[in-house]
Design a protein that fits this description.
By secondary structure, this protein is an alpha+beta fold. The chain has an eleven-stranded mixed beta sheet, sandwiched between helices. It is 30% helix and 30% strand.
């Protein structure tokens, strides 16, 4: 049985935020990184999802000038200042952010579970998981983006930004009746497996592919010696429910905020 985690465990939250930052920094080459406010200010390019500050305030007390330093970092790269703010961050940081006119971009829930004995997979026999092979990263990335986009077309500019990233060694396809129709990936750092990239093509949804991919990654993470797994989901989403079904619990929230800087 899964051992439950405390939603006020700062040590666990710090591990998860460090893993979140590691996965962002490992996803592309040539990122600029600066340690600010106990977290990581990361820049790839202005429209890249990698460009954001992660883990600020999660270590406790913050430097009085941390927001000045953070905004100067992004200003130097001609980029908006984006902060993925954990709700367990130092309240003093939250108060200072409120004074600066940041706008909310997205709210997400951070879910986690300990990696312990996994029940046998009794999913649909028509569903399987395949590791993405060498040279298949562009295919994997396009399928992931299409899964997120649904019936909408993927802007080629977005595809170019994402395809320029580093191939993930732990990337997988969900397969339904022999056809690849879903994606998932994970990054491993200091015993933590960070799950991401969960996406299923519209016509293949509702067939248990995400659950199969979650279970597969848990087994793979256990084989790699991890003791903890985490994922970020939209509140109330299908992914939120599927991760709960797989034994994950809500630990804390993240609020992604941004401020357009003048240059």
């Amino acid at each position: 049985m899964t051992q439950f985690l405390s939603s006020v465990d700062a040590v666990v939250a710090r591990r998860i935020e460090a893993g979140h930052a590691h996965s962002a920094m490992a996803s592309v080459s040539g990122v600029a990184v600066e340690r600010i406010g106990g977290g990581w200010a990361i820049f790839h390019e202005p429209r890249s999802p990698v460009t954001q500050a992660i883990g600020m305030g999660i270590q406790g007390d913050i430097e009085p000038d941390c927001l000045d330093r953070l905004e100067a970092f992004y200003h130097s790269h001609s980029s908006p200042c984006v902060i993925d703010l954990a709700t367990l961050a130092d309240p003093n940081l939250v108060a200072r952010i409120a004074e600066r006119g940041y706008l909310v971009r997205e709210i997400s829930h951070v879910m986690a579970r300990r990696i312990d004995a996994m029940p046998a997979d009794v999913g649909d026999p028509r569903t399987s998981v395949e590791a993405a092979g060498p040279g298949e990263f562009p295919m994997w990335m396009r399928m992931m983006l299409q899964g997120f986009a649904g019936d909408e077309e993927i802007p080629e500019e977005q595809m170019a930004i994402m395809a320029a990233g580093n191939p993930w060694p732990e990337a997988f396809f969900g397969v339904w009746e022999g056809n690849r129709v879903a994606t998932a990936a994970m990054d491993v750092h200091a015993g933590l497996a960070t799950f991401f990239g969960d996406a299923t093509l519209v016509g293949a949804r509702g067939r248990g592919l995400q659950i199969a991919l979650i279970r597969h990654r848990l087994q793979r993470a256990a084989a790699l010696g991890c003791d903890l797994a985490s994922a970020s989901v939209l509140p109330g989403s299908v992914s939120h429910r599927n991760y709960e079904r797989a034994g994950f619990q809500l630990i804390y929230g993240r609020i992604q905020i941004s401020r357009q800087l003048s240059w």
